[in-house]
Design a protein that fits this description.
There is one protein chain. The protein is of the alpha/beta class and 193 residues long. It is built from five helices and ten strands, in the order αββαβαββββαβαββ. It has a single domain (2-189), classed as 3-Layer(aba) Sandwich (Rossmann fold), CATH 3.40.50. The protein has helices at 2-11, 32-45, 62-72, 131-143, 161-167, and strands at residues 13-15, 19-21, 53-57, 76-79, 91-98, 103-110, 119-127, 146-156, 172-180, 187-189. Strand 9 and strand 10 (187-189) form a beta hairpin. Helix 2 (32-45) packs across helix 3 (62-72). The structure holds guanosine-5',3'-tetraphosphate (G4P) and sodium ion (2 copies). One sodium ion binds next to strand 7. Homodimer. Converts the preformed base xanthine, a product of nucleic acid breakdown, to xanthosine 5'-monophosphate (XMP), so it can be reused for RNA or DNA synthesis.
């Protein structure tokens, strides 16, 4: 997505250790116009897949996921990282290991929101090692729902996430793909859409 690549070039900042800071338009302050076009683009890419639910994980996956769901005219569900007081129903849960934080955390979705009738599109802001997306796939599998694809805003192509997800036979579409963050400079690979 050319507009997204240009915006990363203009407003993204490279931190050490291979981290890209995009907090002025995606992960903290959010540009809703850009986010809406990101959602529309992901919806267009997966338009033929008969998606019934968009699934993401809090917090910064919610922005792209809500606009994708709006475009597809389906509900959006975000997995929670902490148990909500009102989540007293049966839960789907899985464990997600964060390489960045070196801790595992439990993520969950109420079982009542996913069933074997569902065809799910997973959406997230970043793909790094793919552990968050893998955890979301496991939640969908527990419900018997079919994961039709994964839509990513920014893929860090020098990490292992895409390989992990493709090995699980789930198609990955990233709107921006980063080849490297060396010398404080962002280099891109050709994006999927
Ligand atoms: P993985 O799911 O791909 O394995 O990712 P990893 O554990 O490495 O990443 C942990 C968190 O850091 C995730 O957010 C992920 O979206 C985010 N992240 C990964 N790489 C980058 C990056 O280069 N830049 C930025 N800005 N974020 C990155 P989170 O902490 O789980 O959630 P949230 O509450 O911030 O959404
Ligand atoms: Na994040
Ligand atoms: Na995220």
């Amino acid at each position: 997505m050319e507009e997204l690549v240009r915006r990363i070039q203009k407003d993204g900042n490279v931190l050490s250790e291979g981290v890209l800071k995009v907090d002025s338009f995606i992960t903290h302050q959010v540009d809703p116009d850009l986010m809406k076009r990101i959602g529309a683009r992901l919806a267009e890419v997966f338009a033929k897949k008969k998606i019934t639910k968009v699934v993401t994980i809090e917090a910064s996956g919610i922005g792209p996921a809500i606009y994708t769901a709006q475009s597809l005219e389906v509900p959006m569900i975000f997995a929670r990282k902490a148990k909500s007081l009102t989540m007293n129903e049966e839960l789907l849960t899985s464990s997600v290991y964060s390489f960045t934080k070196q801790v595992s955390s439990t993520i969950s979705i109420s079982r009542k929101f996913l069933s074997e009738q569902d065809r799910v599109l997973i959406v997230d802001d970043f793909l790094a090692n793919g552990q968050a997306a893998k955890g979301l796939i496991e939640l969908c599998q527990q419900a018997g729902a079919q994961v039709e694809g994964i839509g990513i805003v920014i893929e860090k192509g020098f990490q292992t996430g895409r390989q992990l997800l493709e090995d699980m036979d789930v198609p990955v579409v990233s709107l921006a793909r980063i080849a490297s963050l060396n010398d404080g400079k962002v280099s891109f690979k050709e994006a999927d859409a």
